[in-house]
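Entry type: protein chain
Record version: 2
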Amino acid sequence: MAAPRVAVYTRISRDDEGEGLGVARQRQDCERLTDLRGWAVAKIYEDNDVSAYKRHVRRPAFELMLSDLADGLIDGVVAYDLDRLARQPKDLERLIDLYDERKRRMFATVTNDVNLGTADGRTMARVMVAFANKSSHDASRRIQRKHLELARQGKSSGGPAPYGWQKDGRKVDLVAAEHIRAAQKQLLAGVRIGTIRTDWQRRGLAHPREGTTRLPHHLVERMLTNPRLCGYRTYRGEVLLDDDGHPVIGAWDPINTVEEWEAVCAVVAERKQKYPGRSLARKYLLSGIARCGLCHAKIRGQINRHRSPNSKGASFSYQCSVVNGGCGKVGRAGEAVDEFVISLVLAEQRERAASTTVREGEPWPNASELAEVEADIAALTQAAKAKEITVSTLLQLLPDLERRRDELKLERGRFSKARHQAASPSVDTLEDFLSLPLERQQALILHSLSAILIHPAGRGVRKFDPSLIEPVWR
């Protein structure tokens, strides 16, 4: 008679060694047990560095093992301990259901003698998993309490240092910090996070793990807006406040000032409010800026698939389209329009720069109001602690003050953003302009113009006429 073919399941919640040694030791002990029982190992199912307690975590090897057991590809399961298989009662019940369907399936663990094929064994397994679940819950509560205490002290909770800091997590990595600052300046100048992400990925910057080539969009956004950049300590994704309502300062060197960080956050927040869920990527400089001189609908750029002999190699055009709600009667070669508009904008901005000086040291006008609101919040909190006012009174007065505080902080961020944008270096030549990312070029156009009207040129091929391109200045 052929030996039963069983699965060996190994799992460890946290692989601190990073080499899978924990699951390897489990596998060796399980294989010895199968030899003693006279069973054959059909397959090794391994979930390394995966929790069995967290409800939202999916264990791929565990799910595959249950599927193979249900399909009859394996005759049983061997694990080092029952808690390696399950720490949630629902996972154990899924396994028990399979053993209920077929009583003769094999089951064994190295550390105890539990048989899921018998009623007593299933009862014992349920009790053991319930205790394992409680143990995990207690450990989780202790860890959360420890992390909160570390956060209140401004200390790190461990783990690898974020991009921008050295391995100790305290001292700034000067090279990485410069990459972050440069990307933030691009963001303030109108460049999309997607463009920055593509550039970082091409240059091999800020990869989350060694050997990883994919750099997610949300990770780059987080790197550029992380409160840690200005020294703020966070807990569960929020800036942690002390008893007086002030942000807790972390025990590491900051990369940004609070003003710089707030300016970057304001840019990201405004884009999300203005364009929720939309991609801001564009292929043509004046797409969405140019408008038809007849119907005033927005004109989009499009590739010229059928060039006329006299088009002089024009590769794209701005065309009023019926599909986009326009009249479809106005179109113009794109390169000539772009070059003309760029020359207008550069001339206007040079003239403005000559007559205007940026007041970099100008203070934010509502700083005193924010200080007063924060002082009122701290005073109310202290009064409630001293039992000078009731908690009910505190909860009635606090929300309005906190709302006003948050509004003022957002306003301060927008003020800082505007000042940084005004202080950004000007572009003097066409070559400098064309060397910028497209989003930055569009931001410079929109700094001077609110729209471009393209008027009809009549029938037939004609020489480019600048008088038919009407700028609408801000």
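Comment: Residues 119-152 form the longest helix (34 residues).
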